[in-house]
Structures are given as structure tokens and as C-alpha cells.
Amino acid sequence: MAMATISSTLLFFLFWLHVIMTACEDSFGPDFGASKICISSMNYTANSTFNTNLHTLLSTLTSHTEINYGFYNFSHGQNSDKVYAIGLCRGDLKVDECRSCLNSSQANLRQLCPNQKEAISWEEKCMLRYSNRPIFHTMDTSPPYYMHNTYNATDVDEFNKVLGGLLRNLREKAAGGDSRRKYATDTAIVANFQPINGLMQCTPDLSRQDCGDCLDWSISTLPKFAKDKVGALVLLPSCNLRFEIYEFYNSTAILDPPLPPALPPAPLSLHQEDHGNSLRTAIIIVVPTVIVVLVLLIVIGRYLRRKARQNLLAEDDGDDDEIGMVESLQFNLNTIQVATSNFSDSNKLGEGGFGSVYQGKLSNGQVIAVKRLSTNSGQGDLEFKNEVLLLAKLQHRNLVRLLGFSLQGREKLLVYEFVPNKSLDYFIFDPTEKAQLDWDTRYKIIIGIARGLLYLHQDSRLRIIHRDLKASNILLDKEMIPKISDFGIARLMTAGQTQENTSRVVGTFGYMAPEYIMQGQFSVKSDVFSFGVLVLEIVSGQKNHGVRDEKNGEGLLSFVWRNWREGTVTNIMDPTLNNSSLDEMIRCIGIGLLCVEEDLNNRPTMANVALMLNSCSITLPVPKKPAFFIDSATGSLPNMSSEDSWATKGTQSSGISAQESVNGASITELYPR
């Protein structure tokens, strides 16, 4: 009788397990299709050298028969026509199956992204990406791709607890892989005997730390889009994560052959035994000594690194000794003087409240931009220290690159890459120049700025709040790729820190978030606010402080909100643009309005913004009334009393910035280039 009861229970369990598995496979099965993203920051022509190099590289990627572990990373070409490609197969695939998947991906990717210099394809069992920039040994978390099962867990708390333990274990296993494979799978059992199958994988060229960071980023996104779901998938260029309540992977082939057995030691003579005893004695003495010394060195090294990190986080002015952290970037003053013809007026690009900027040319022919801080600036030391210590650690194609600095006597110089196309405000607000910015170019600029901010807020090792994002601080290179510049007032946030307060509010009016102006509170969401203003300026071609209505003094945010509510969004768009991409422009206006909402908790993160920009299938939330909205009935800012608006006293009418714009020496505000 007992056996019959057990058998009935088992059959009942198996039946429902089959039902659940079938339902899950219907909603998000193992064959989830493919996702391809054309990252169209730059295009190439059909008869170009780049196209030839790309075709050669992709068509021969899997021809390297010595590779049997599913990871291909090769490049082809020279200089600006060089192409980099990465192919990664799921760790359980056999060699032939892996090559077949990658060959199919490259054919589809070339067809769907016919002229983009950067693209990525995710199939169920493999990933293929190529780029015109170096992508090896680099952790990239953008663009992301997400999917989730439509079914929720029954016992949510228990399921999430078991899932959390499974993901932590998989992260450690995957990150601990070697240079051929960073891949891990495992199964955990929930209390109701329901299995959770998990998989994590990184491109093996990543370091253990970078792989772990990438997987941590993937795990952190799960509560946002797959909360309490029984299955989810996160695909990033450098890593991926998946879990299901059914098995979706096979057993993994072992790469390394077993080691040959050790040979037995040869018999020792009496003399050899004596010598061996002496050797053993020496080893017993030396080895512990070496271990102790190594441990001490490691402890001292960690202490020094932690101390240097603490010094970097300190906000006091400090001494110039901190510059020793980046001594390798230091230029000799004579080198800069020669490059700029001793800072001649003919090489001056412009000047601001904290110095001048000069164009120069190094002996190797490289063109540079040199920011020379004014010697009588009371805040110059702080700005100089910030830019050197922050920019030296930041590397991203959408950030202006710091080449070095010079610190000699009273001379403080910052050496940047030279960006030839001036700044965004030079184009977007000029009636003649704005004609060069068609919608495709503007959309690429918006996406590039979003990527740069996402890197600062989330993807870099340091969390940076820029605090002065504006059109004049966006440089455009020769291909109109945007680069965020001027980190003079940027702030570094410690791990886990979400916001900070300051008694010194600095920045540019019109771009500063309300909580920052009125309470001195800044966070990543204050940068999001500035980004939203910038997006609306790019779409409309109008300055945020431009007057739309002489009677009511209507600003850009009020103008956009009024037309958005009245359904006359075409009034917002720059008249120089055609309506061929109307849906895309309307979507950008909606994203901009979400970013400038008064309540910072309602604003999206830059990760969400990047996702909304890259995926038109995501439905946008309904925007709420923006901050600084002028009520036409009262002609006032209803959410700001005169007592709270202390930062406007004496400076707002100038339209420049609080504290007289501490970044007046920004190289992005200078003409001509």
C-alpha cells in the first residue's frame, strides 16, 4: 500500500514536471532564435579595404583547425582598416557543431548588417561579433540583450534563495576558467524537488576579475527584468548567463588530457642519500622563509593599494604627490612648449575662466590639445587633480582621451587627444552648421553619449558622476562620433554609494537637476537629467534656455512638455530634419522627458536608457511633468520657491553656470579647431 502511494506521488510529480517543462519551452524554449545588433556608429562602403578585410576575417575565422575549445579571436588588416572578430561557442558544443554555428552567424550577420563597422550576433549556441576597434581582453557590457520565461516561481522566496546560491557558484567556476574556456554549468534543487539548471560563460580572453565583474553585472540585471521568473537569459558581448527549470545544455567535454603518471624515483646511493638529507634540510628552512616573505609583500602591496585608493577618494585639495599615481603619463614642459610654439596666440583654440587651450603637434606628428591652467585660479589645483586622476583611469571611445599632463613649477598642463570637429553646440545651435547633422548622425550622437555615460556610471572600475554634461562638453571627432569631455568637476563614488551631498554646487544652469541645485544632492540620476536635456536639445535644435514665448518666458522643457501633451510633437523637432524617421524622433523625445522628471526615483538609469535606445520593441513608460516646468497660468516654477532657488541669485541671468562655471577652460567650448 505504501509502495503504491509512493508510486502515485512520483507519477503525479513527473506529470506536473513535464507540464511545467513543456510550458516553459513553449514560452521560452531552448531554441530562442537569434538576436543581431548592428552597432552603426560608423559605416563602410562596399568596395573599401575595410570590407575586404572583414570578409577575409569572417570567412576564415573557423579555419583554424588547432582550436577545439570554441573560442576564436583574430584580427586582420592595418591601421584604420583593421578588423577585430570574436567567435564564442557554448562550452558543451562539439567542434563541428561550433564551427557550423559560427559560419551560419557570419553569413547572417553580413546580410543583416551590410555596412556597419561594428555588429554582434547571438545564436542559441554561439556568439559572433566584429569591430573596427580593439575588443580583445576588454570587458564590454553594452549592448545587452535580455529574455525571460513568462512563468513565475511558485515558492518565490525559496526559488530565489536557491537560484542565488547557484549563480554565485557558477560565477566562481566560470571566472576561474583558463584562457581557453571560462564556462560553467550546474543544477540546484528547490525544496519541492524542482531543478534549476544554470549556465554562465565569459570570453576566455578576460581576466578572472573582468569575467567576474561581467557576470556580476548580468546577475544584477535579473531583478529588473526577470523578477521571480523560472527562467531568464542575459547576453552581453563579453559574457552570458542563463537559468531554466529544464535542462538546456549537454555535458561538457574535458579539454585537458589526463596527466601521465609520475615516474618512480630512482634508488639512491648512500652518498646521494646524505646529499638528499642535506637538500631536504635546506628546503625545510628556505621554503617557509620564502613563503613568509611573499605573504608580507602581498599584505604590504594590498595596504599600499588601499591607501592609494583612499587618497583618491578624499576630496581635500591635498598635495601634488597624488600625481605620482600617473607618473607614466607625465610630459616634459619643454616638449609641450615646442609642440605649441611656446603657447603662441596662433595656436590658441580659445580660453575660459581657468586657462587657455592650445593646439600642438608632437615630434611624432600627433596633433594634441593642451589645456593650460591659469596660475591665478584659486580652484585650478583641484580641477587639475580631478581630471588627471580620473581620466587616467578611464578608457572608452565615447570619452575624450587624456594623453598626459605636465606639472612643473606653476605650470599645470593637461594634454588631450585632438578632436577636429569642435563641439556639439557649435553644430546643433548654429542655423547653418546644423544642416550637417541629419537625423541618423544625431541619433548616433545620442547613442554614443549614452554609452559614454553608462561606462562612467556602471561599466568602468570607478563610478564617476560627471556633473557638467552639456552640449559644449561633447566633442565630435572627424566621423562625428561623440566624446564626453571636461572632468574638472566630476566626482568619484565609492562602492555601493548611490548619492552624495555637497555645499558647493557647480555646473551649468539648464542642465542641473533640481535636487542638485536646491539641496546639493547629486547622483547618477543627476547626470541622467543632464542627458535628458541634451537629448531634447539635439532633437529640437534649440538651447534649453532659449525663449519660446516672450510673454511667459517658456523654456525648452516647458515647450516640449506642452507639445507632447497636446499631441503636436512635430513642433518640437528641428525644422531642418525631414520626417523619414518620425517614430525614432518621437521615441527620443519620450526618453528625454523620462530623464528630466522632477523625482529622481522616476528617472531611468543609463543602463535602462541604453536598452530603450537599442531596442524599439520595449514600451516606454508614460512621462510625467518635467522639473522646472513653467505653468503658463502663473508664469512661475511651481516646484521651486524663492527660498529654495538660492543658486539662481546673481548668476542665472547670465545663462552660464553656478559658481561662475568652474569649467570655463573646457577645450570643448573653443573655436576654431
From TrEMBL:
<dbReference type="Pfam" id="PF01657">
    <property type="entry name" value="Stress-antifung"/>
</dbReference>
<feature type="transmembrane region" description="Helical">
    <location>
        <begin position="282"/>
        <end position="304"/>
    </location>
</feature>
<keyword id="KW-0732">Signal</keyword>
<feature type="domain" description="Gnk2-homologous">
    <location>
        <begin position="141"/>
        <end position="248"/>
    </location>
</feature>
<dbReference type="InterPro" id="IPR000719">
    <property type="entry name" value="Prot_kinase_dom"/>
</dbReference>
<dbReference type="GO" id="GO:0005886">
    <property type="term" value="C:plasma membrane"/>
</dbReference>
<feature type="signal peptide">
    <location>
        <begin position="1"/>
        <end position="22"/>
    </location>
</feature>
<feature type="region of interest" description="Disordered">
    <location>
        <begin position="639"/>
        <end position="673"/>
    </location>
</feature>
<dbReference type="GO" id="GO:0005524">
    <property type="term" value="F:ATP binding"/>
</dbReference>
<dbReference type="InterPro" id="IPR002902">
    <property type="entry name" value="GNK2"/>
</dbReference>
<keyword id="KW-0547">Nucleotide-binding</keyword>
<keyword id="KW-0723">Serine/threonine-protein kinase</keyword>
<keyword id="KW-0597">Phosphoprotein</keyword>
<feature type="domain" description="Protein kinase">
    <location>
        <begin position="343"/>
        <end position="620"/>
    </location>
</feature>
<keyword id="KW-0677">Repeat</keyword>
<keyword id="KW-0325">Glycoprotein</keyword>
<dbReference type="InterPro" id="IPR017441">
    <property type="entry name" value="Protein_kinase_ATP_BS"/>
</dbReference>
<dbReference type="Pfam" id="PF07714">
    <property type="entry name" value="PK_Tyr_Ser-Thr"/>
</dbReference>
<dbReference type="InterPro" id="IPR001245">
    <property type="entry name" value="Ser-Thr/Tyr_kinase_cat_dom"/>
</dbReference>
<dbReference type="GO" id="GO:0006979">
    <property type="term" value="P:response to oxidative stress"/>
</dbReference>
<dbReference type="InterPro" id="IPR008271">
    <property type="entry name" value="Ser/Thr_kinase_AS"/>
</dbReference>
<keyword id="KW-0675">Receptor</keyword>
<dbReference type="InterPro" id="IPR011009">
    <property type="entry name" value="Kinase-like_dom_sf"/>
</dbReference>
<feature type="binding site">
    <location>
        <position position="371"/>
    </location>
    <ligand>
        <name>ATP</name>
    </ligand>
</feature>
<protein>
    <submittedName>
        <fullName>Uncharacterized protein</fullName>
    </submittedName>
</protein>
<feature type="compositionally biased region" description="Polar residues">
    <location>
        <begin position="639"/>
        <end position="666"/>
    </location>
</feature>
<keyword id="KW-0418">Kinase</keyword>
<keyword id="KW-0472">Membrane</keyword>
<keyword id="KW-0812">Transmembrane</keyword>
<dbReference type="InterPro" id="IPR038408">
    <property type="entry name" value="GNK2_sf"/>
</dbReference>
<keyword id="KW-0808">Transferase</keyword>
<dbReference type="GO" id="GO:0004674">
    <property type="term" value="F:protein serine/threonine kinase activity"/>
</dbReference>
<feature type="domain" description="Gnk2-homologous">
    <location>
        <begin position="32"/>
        <end position="135"/>
    </location>
</feature>
<keyword id="KW-1133">Transmembrane helix</keyword>
<keyword id="KW-0067">ATP-binding</keyword>
